[in-house]
Design goal:
Layout: E1 5-6, E2 10-18, E3 22-29, E4 34-41, H1 49-63, E5 73-79, E6 82-88, H2 95-102, H3 107-126, E7 139-141, E8 147-149, H4 179-182, H5 189-205, H6 215-224, H7 230-233, H8 239-248, H9 260-275, E9 323-324, E10 333-334, E11 338-339, E12 342-347, E13 372-373, E14 388-398, E15 402-406, E16 413-419, E17 427-428, E18 433-434, E19 438-442, E20 449-458, E21 467-468, E22 470-474
Antiparallel strand pairs: 1-2, 2-3, 3-4, 4-6, 5-6, 7-8, 9-10, 11-22, 12-14, 13-21, 14-20, 15-19, 15-22, 16-17, 16-18, 16-20
Helix pairs in contact: 3-5, 3-9, 5-8, 8-9
Length: 477
Amino acid sequence: MVGKTIAGRYELEEVVGHGGMSSVYRAHDSLLERYVALKILHEQYNEDDDFVERFKREARSVAQLQHPSIVTVIDRGEEEGRQYIVFEYIDGENLKEFVVRKGRLEVREALDIAVDIARALAFAHEHGLIHRDVKPQNVLLNGDGRAKVTDFGIARSLDVEHGVTQTGTVLGTSNYIAPEQASGQPVDVHTDVYSLGVVLYELLTGDVPFPGESFVAVAMKHVQEPPPNVLDVRGDVPLRVAAAIDRALEKDPAQRFPTMDAFAAELEACLAELDRGEDGDATMVIPAAKRQGPPKRRKAGSRLPIFIGSLGALAIAAVVVGLLTVGDKGKAIPVGAQIPIAGVGAFDPFGDGTEHDAAAINATDGDPTTYWSTETYNDGLERVKKGVGMVLDAHAATQVSRITVVTDTPGFTAEIRATNIQGTLGQLVSEKRAVARTTRFAIDESAPKRYYLIWITKLAPDGHFAHVNEVRAFGKG
């Protein structure tokens, strides 16, 4: 096609992109004397009325999206039976190329780009269009710091290894695919939220959260495995940013940000904290935690199990998410699911019986800038008592396989204990560990318990108190 002229004005000069359904060319518009990008549907799809109509319909929809962070659609037409769409030409690299070349980005740069993408997607959602394939390859950088989203929902068909079914069902690219997308469930705005969360994770760490060799293997990780915490890979990411990514990557769409606008607003708030210096400048990595006020409480309800249906489009007859059965009184938890827990108080058997009990809920409120705190021990905790702890309620006897603790006072020593009777020390179910900013405790799966205790036995060498900012619990997976 290079060298041909389309519609008597678009002179194709160079292939700049190639996909399963179409190729993109840089073209010179001889009428207006400018460069444009021309996407041409591959010849084999021009005989398929469904593909052609979808190509036309989506082009018309995207043409209505006039936004500074969305690549503009200029024209659409047909030439010798082949469908084409004309876009503005962005003379720059895509975001994937940028990250591969540069590596992990500075937090501010990553947030700036993510906000551009989020605002573009929010605008598209307001106009009734879900992207369904948010990934760095579909974000173009124009050289002046502006990120522009392209390729909104244009249907594509590749073999299973490359990420989209041969039947033409768009599933997105496996490294960025949402669990509901991978399992053939309906998609909505939450699907784009998840994919943008993956993109932001990659911008900050230089890699995707679930790497793998095949589309199916990676897709199943998105369906079944809890996502890694960005702080485990990169400790200088502010807690609020890490929490935003965690929320975007929830398996249950209802637990993610309710809208892309809400996600964008949270990312802008993270940027504002950087501007105010609340991340502490280059030597501080944790924003100043909020002092306790009235305890925050989540709305009633628990996480919905994700039941995975057929992946027939992926040549898998059926994939079923198993449930852990924890005994006659145990609660069934989907494999790999995060377990809803609540901080319900402190346990201080060697002191006066209380230790900031009302603040315990702060450790499970989803906000890493709030916390439960021990009392202040100027001479060290271990010189005063054997330990003090914070109590977590799983609401029923539940088999927990892992508990993750996030703190802005790293260096204290803790272990996890479990019991079915609140107000008792219970049995030891983890190793004793020095707690870093994010620490994962593997839990002994001897028996399901309702109450789990973060039992602190020693403070950091230069610390007089310990904070527990966030706690997350996971079932076996």
